[in-house]
Amino acid sequence: MAPVFHPITLAFLFFFVFHSSLAAPVTYNVANFGAKPDGKTDSTKAFLTAWSNACGSTRPASIYVPRGRFLLRNVVFTGPCKNKAINIQIDGTLVAPSDYRVIGNAGYWLLFQHVNGVSIRGGNLDGQGTGLWSCKMSGKSCPNGASTLGFSNSNNIAITGLTSLNSQIFHIVVNGCQNVKMQGVKVIAAGNSPNTDGIHVQLSSGVTILNSKIQTGDDCVSIGPGTSNLWIENVACGPGHGISIGSLGKDLQEQGVQNVTVKTVTFANTQNGFRIKSWGRPSNGFARNILFQHAVMVNVQNPIVIDQNYCPGNKGCPGQVSGVKVSNVIYQDIHGTSATQVAVKFDCSSKFPCSGIRLENVKLTFKNQPAQVSCNHAGGRAAGLVQPDSCL
Ligand SMILES: *[C@@H]1O[C@H](CO)[C@@H](O)[C@H](O)[C@H]1NC(C)=O
């Protein structure tokens, strides 16, 4: 007798098969495409093959990188892809070539462009940048260097629990993106390493950086022209050059920076805390609606600084003033120690003075005494306890 299936059982079976084949993500393990965890076999091709499979998949896809060290030359992971959910799970370490010249002129070591819905979970990226830093520090002529990880013209990106070590130049760059969430990111490079910014954001909107720890030789986070709706919370910075908006106003035509929130940050032995910096030359750029809130400064050289007379080497700007308009910048609940006498310095444009600067509950000391403040073309007001006395 033929077996009889109840219609509901059939419906369940049908649903299960149909549903799982549509929705279950397909996983591409780089080891299955020839990647070797030995730290010396070039695995670039294997990663690219895994990428083209994941990107070409019409359903959500995962790329899996197992434990071990995988040597990669510079790679561009290009979209658009056929799905909107590619998850890259990294249990191991990606290693750049030890000879810095191999990727030194590539711009990026690992670049994602025109992708939508890519997330990276875990992993270590070892940029092996120390050779290039020595070259630069010796004054020889060297390649510019490659940033370790870049997202360009991409949307809906998540980076979680990633560690970037010894990048040649910038560690993570977000350029021309919307909706990028970084959480639990670690950046580690020497305090004297040149141009090794931790996270650089520009021409992007809706970027969030949470619960991250950045120790490096340049800005922990640098915020370039065209950044809006940026949220940074719970970040430890140091060594490094602090969290910087700028340099702005290098170009005459430039997109501004607006709606930036930076809260709950510690700076330890950094060059700056909260900095806004613009070139001393004409520009239509601006920085407005900025909130710096809840910070602890430990031995920071310039805890609070606006510098609108940036002109390195006195080239390209002598005798000119910044066109960048700085307005509505709030500093709230900031305390700790300054490593120099002047802990708060507002050096604004004489042509476009800073306006709407607010200091609220700010207490900074230098050698156990109230530190000093300096104001040039800065308008605004102080509220609550402010030590040293405000000069606004
Ligand atoms: C400012 O940015 C935050 C995200 O950081 C966003 O939630 C908020 O809506 C933005 N505010 C304005 C006025 O655009």
Total domain modules: 2
Task: Note the main sheet.
Answer: 20 strands, mixed
Helix content: under 10%
How far apart are the termini?
A: 94 Å
* Average residue pLDDT: 94
Structural class computed from helices and strand pairing: mainly beta
CATH topology of the largest domain: Pectate Lyase C-like
Task: Give the total of beta strands.
Answer: 31
Q: Compute the gyration radius: what is it?
A: 24 Å
CATH class of the largest domain: Mainly Beta
Overall outline? elongated
CATH superfamily of the largest domain: Single-stranded right-handed beta-helix, Pectin lyase-like
Report the β-strand fraction as a percent range.
over 45%
What is the count of DSSP helices, taking H or I runs of 4+ residues? Answer: 3
Describe the structure.
It is found in: Secreted, Cell wall. It comes from Quillaja saponaria. This is Polygalacturonase-like. The chain has two domains: 29-201, Single-stranded right-handed beta-helix, Pectin lyase-like (Pectate Lyase C-like); 219-392, Single-stranded right-handed beta-helix, Pectin lyase-like (Pectate Lyase C-like, 3 Solenoid), CATH 2.160.20. The chain has three helices and 31 strands. It is mostly beta strands. A hairpin with a 2-residue loop joins strand 28 and strand 29 (369-370). The strands form two sheets. It has a 20-stranded mixed sheet that branches. The relative contact order is 0.07. The model is unreliable at 10-21 (pLDDT under 50). Bound molecules: 2-acetamido-2-deoxy-beta-D-glucopyranose. Residues 229, 231, 259, 261 line the site of 2-acetamido-2-deoxy-beta-D-glucopyranose.
